[in-house]
């Protein structure tokens, strides 16, 4: 048994209290930038763990850190995200969310449909474990609880609010993060290089000239022009991006007009772009802008289109050297349950901003949340694509196994980069 494996097992806290905490969090989710009660609950629990924790709150909204100093050595930052999604839960769990919250001008149901409640509890488990093991390591650990991951601006908000300056967070030597995923519960998966994609979101407004539906020759129809743009955008993926590169362009929303016999004066659509490399990202963004401009010119728009770039998240790219170091630890701790992720995920994370802001390396990995027997049966029947995935109203991680796996994985990763005592 490796020393880290022994430390993980010897210092794992009883999980019953954490299961109860998880149920409370799951039943009481909060949207991005509204994580007041979740943040307060984190602080309350952390204060109950140890007086050694230096807790600082109100960072970039409801973000917080708890700093555990234990002598000279490396600084390791471990991150969890706290926010939920505007989704109406359909899991049927006895602790399912029935919460509603105001989003914009509307009341919307709220659910932890992405597993951030798992992440926060796993980080608390890791904090208790590492406090228990303080006699066996030296260095500093920062436990960071981040708001607003789903809106893509939570990590940036913490950094811009002075995370590493006025809030006094020690600059880390390594930043660590993880995400529960719809893979077999108990499995941990990592890979070097890009593990998650970049994400760019645009709001595009096409301006036409409105009028009566019976007189289109006196109008400039923005719906027709927007439709041409939306179809033409897919040729960027099929005809501009190389076949062995990856890009996804999705138009997820389009709004125009109010009546069938009126040609409206503008059409608006929302666009999302996913890529895995900086060169491909740059190429796609350039061509998206060119297509929009060209189609508006071809449609005789009297006013240039308005292209608003309202969210941008970089790809999550694990450096080979640090991922290899963590990989060895995970293989020792999890054995055959640690695997190499077969491909990059086209989901996105703002996690890397916490490291990039101070020019430090990071490692991000996935761990399984799908109940093992369900996963195995669906694999045998070839129906894995039917399993509830992140952001689904039916996404329900296997609570006990997910918490244990995520807690153990974070402890193992943190210990990998601290100095262990002989």
From TrEMBL:
Residues 200-296 form the Peptidase M20 dimerisation domain. Its cofactor is Mn(2+). The Mn(2+) ion enhances activity. It comes from the Eukaryota. Mn(2+) binds at residues 114, 116, 150, 179. Gene3D superfamilies: 3.30.70.360, Zn peptidases. GO terms for molecular function: hydrolase activity; metal ion binding. The keyword Manganese applies. Pfam families: M20_dimer, Peptidase_M20. Keywords: Hydrolase, Manganese, Metal-binding. The keyword Hydrolase applies. Belongs to the peptidase M20A family. This is Hippurate hydrolase.
């Amino acid at each position: 048994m490796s020393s880290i494996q022994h430390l993980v097992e010897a210092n794992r806290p009883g999980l019953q209290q954490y299961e109860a905490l998880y149920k409370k969090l799951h039943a009481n989710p909060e949207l991005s930038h509204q994580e007041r009660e979740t943040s307060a609950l984190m602080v309350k629990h952390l204060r109950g763990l140890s007086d050694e924790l230096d807790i600082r709150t109100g960072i970039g909204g409801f973000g917080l850190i708890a700093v555990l100093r234990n002598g000279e050595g490396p600084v390791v930052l471990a991150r969890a995200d706290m926010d939920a999604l505007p989704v109406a839960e359909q899991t049927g769990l006895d602790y399912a969310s029935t919460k509603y919250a105001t989003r914009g001008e509307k009341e919307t149901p709220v659910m932890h449909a992405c597993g951030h409640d798992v992440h926060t509890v796993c980080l608390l488990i890791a904090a208790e474990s590492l406090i228990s093991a303080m006699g066996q390591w030296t260095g500093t650990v920062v436990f960071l609880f981040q708001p607003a991951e789903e809106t893509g601006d939570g990590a940036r908000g913490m950094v811009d609010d002075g995370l590493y300056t006025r809030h006094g967070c020690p600059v880390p030597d390594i930043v660590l993060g993880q995400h529960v995923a719809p893979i077999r519960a108990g499995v941990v998966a990592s890979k070097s290089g890009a593990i998650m994609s970049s994400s760019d979101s645009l709001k595009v407004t096409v301006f036409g000239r409105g009028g009566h539906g019976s007189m289109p020759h006196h109008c400039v129809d923005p719906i027709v022009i927007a439709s041409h743009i939306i179809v033409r955008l897919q040729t960027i993926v099929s005809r501009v991006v190389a076949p062995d590169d990856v890009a996804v362009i999705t138009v997820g929303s389009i709004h125009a007009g109010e009546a069938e016999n009126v040609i409206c004066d503008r059409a608006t659509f929302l666009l999302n772009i996913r890529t895995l490399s900086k060169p491909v990202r740059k190429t796609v963004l350039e061509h998206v802008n060119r297509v929009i401009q060209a189609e508006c010119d071809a449609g005789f728009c009297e006013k240039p289109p308005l292209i608003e770039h309202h969210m941008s998240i970089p790809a999550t790219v694990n450096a080979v050297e640090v991922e290899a170091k963590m990989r060895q630890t995970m293989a020792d701790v999890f054995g055959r349950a640690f695997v190499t992720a077969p491909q990059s995920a086209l989901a996105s994370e703002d996690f890397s901003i916490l490291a990039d802001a101070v020019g430090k390396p990071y490692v991000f990995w996935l761990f399984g949340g799908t109940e093992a027997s369900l996963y195995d049966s669906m694999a045998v029947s070839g129906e894995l694509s039917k399993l509830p995935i992140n952001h689904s109203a039916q996404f329900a991680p296997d609570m006990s196994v997910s918490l244990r796996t995520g807690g153990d994985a974070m402890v193992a990763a943190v210990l990998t980069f601290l100095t262990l005592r002989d």
